[in-house]
């Protein structure tokens, strides 16, 4: 009997360690270039240490997606462990080169490993939206579904899985070149809290609020408009702001039918672009 479909994603999916272990999700680390240092996301640098440093620096580090060689190595390792089918789930191709690198790796291995099938997915999203797709893929794989059915499940999630977040500033997104169509919010006054999301793989502005509390209410309004009283799964995401996402969670629990939720902290490679203090949520309808 063949092994379950192997599920691979990137460190930027920011999936809590206990879920990675429980669901046998494999990850490939992004790179962070800090001066002359080359760090591996969640391997040689962890969240607390990185955020403490990030809050004090005037020189933003840069990030880089894994290259084709990183994915070739990961796919080979999975094949050597007995996998004959792999689903590879990645951040929006408009925000990162990971999807393209994974596609190159998949094509390179077609000849030397003809019995290995690799399906590469562009989530057109980021953070725990990408993470949710890996989680649900892993659950489907463990239930016995094969690659085509697992991939179909993930692709059905792509258009209905959404990110909403706010922060005290957009300077990190702006400095890191990941601002997308939210550029017009950069010059907002300091007491304005920008609300951003992703559409078709690109960061977009969703409005402004005059306080974090107002921003959190607006987030929940948007989710409620999208899903009504239908069952929803929500990951509350933050960068050094757990108390803030707990405030969002408290509002959600009075207004929405969340059948599964958890709190997750963004990986350092994402925190580079969001900055400390970011809080938000990633959600999708539980019944697709």
Q: Quote the average pLDDT.
A: 90
Number of strands: 13
Rg to the nearest angstrom? 19 Å
Which fold does the CATH topology of the largest domain refer to?
Answer: Hypothetical Protein Tm841, Chain: A,domain 3
Helix content: 25-40%
CATH hierarchy, class of the largest domain: Alpha Beta
Strand order of the largest sheet: 10-9-8-13-11-12
Bulk shape? globular
Indicate the low-confidence ranges by residue numbers: 179-183
- State the end-to-end CA separation: 29 Å
Kindly name the structural category.
alpha/beta
Largest sheet: 6 strands, mixed
CATH architecture of the largest domain: 2-Layer Sandwich
**SS element count, helices:** 10
Number of domains: 2
Strand content: 25-35%
Descriptive account of the structure:
38% of the residues lie in helices and 26% in strands. With 288 residues, it is of the alpha/beta class. The longest helix has 16 residues, at 127-142. The radius of gyration is 19 Å and the shape is globular. Residues 179-183 have low confidence and may be disordered.
């Amino acid at each position: 009997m063949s092994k379950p479909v192997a599920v691979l994603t990137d460190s930027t999916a920011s999936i809590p360690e206990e879920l990675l272990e429980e669901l046998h999700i494999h990850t490939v680390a992004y790179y962070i270039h800090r001066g002359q240092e080359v760090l591996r996301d969640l391997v040689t640098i962890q969240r607390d240490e990185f955020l403490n440093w990030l809050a004090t620096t005037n020189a933003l580090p840069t990030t880089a997606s894994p290259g084709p060689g990183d994915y070739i190595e990961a796919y080979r390792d999975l094949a050597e462990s007995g996998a004959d089918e792999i689903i590879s789930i990645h951040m929006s191709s408009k925000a990162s080169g990971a999807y393209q690198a994974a596609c190159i790796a998949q094509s390179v291995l077609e000849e030397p490993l003809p019995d290995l099938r690799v399906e590469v997915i562009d989530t057109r999203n980021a953070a725990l939206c990408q993470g949710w797709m890996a989680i649900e893929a892993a659950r489907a794989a463990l239930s016995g579904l094969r690659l085509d059915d697992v991939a179909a499940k993930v692709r059905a999630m792509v258009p209905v899985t959404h990110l909403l977040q706010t922060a005290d500033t957009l300077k990190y997104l702006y400095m890191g070149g990941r601002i997308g169509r939210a550029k017009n919010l950069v010059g907002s006054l300091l007491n304005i809290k920008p609300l951003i999301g992703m559409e078709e793989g690109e960061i977009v502005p969703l409005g402004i609020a005059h306080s974090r509390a107002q921003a959190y209410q607006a987030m929940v309004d948007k989710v409620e408009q999208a899903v009504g009283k239908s069952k929803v799964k929500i990951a509350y995401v933050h960068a050094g702001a757990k108390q803030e996402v707990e405030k969002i969670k408290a509002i959600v629990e009075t207004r929405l039918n969340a059948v599964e939720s958890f709190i997750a902290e963004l990986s350092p490679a994402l925190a580079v672009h969001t900055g400390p203090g970011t809080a938000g949520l990633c959600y999708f309808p539980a019944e697709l």
